[in-house]
Design a protein that fits this description.
Layout (H helix, E strand, L loop, with lengths): L3 E6 L11 H13 L4 E5 L2 H5 L7 E5 L16 H13 L2 E5 L12 H5 L1 E2 L11 E7 L11 E6 L6 E2 L4 E7 L4 E10 L2 E6 L11 H14 L4
Parallel strand pairs: 1-2, 1-3, 3-4, 4-11
Antiparallel strand pairs: 5-8, 6-7, 6-9, 9-10, 10-11
Amino acid sequence: MAHRALVLTGSGRYADPWHPFAEVGAEVADILRHRDWDVAVSDDVDQGMANLDGYDLVAVCAGDPWRGGSSLTRGAPPSSVAGFAAALERGIGVLAVHSAVSSLRDYPEWAPALGAIWLPELSFHPEAGEMTVQVEPDAVPAEVPTTFHTHDERYCALQRLGQRTVVAWHEGDGAKEAAAWVREYGGGRIAVDVLGHDARAFEASGHRTLVAALAAWAVAGS
């Protein structure tokens, strides 16, 4: 039976001026469908979180809902918060893409599940450009190359929360930074890929195979 995934893309309070979330979500969905996943895509993040029953994986491509600093953009529906918590407890897989590490701030389980969070004024990235990604060969299937090149943003100085197994690295501002990692939280398996600023970031076949491997790992227990 095919794994079922829900890809959530940022709109409304989860949108921002920099990230084409629908474009990124379409790339993630395409990667999974080419591996015979049954994939649904929605741009209503909170509604999606309230309706995770029946899905093996939730993939989030969304921005910071608190970015504007207004109290009007804060607060998720209780049914959404409870829905995500219940899904984690039953063992749903999670794939967090790029700015998802700054998202879902109204969900108490989100940042602890991911194991890292973007801190405004402290976390940063150099201007997007060509970059090299080094993959830990023992952490992923052999089809994922140990090195690939892509055009993307290099996230730096994320606040770590808990233990993780780093799957891929990139050069940050004078030091190596994690580009992708996996961990377990509650009953769920969590995969984080901080690459994926836009569709161009997915032109590299190495990145696409990495995303597929992360998703497969996240549902390996289901």
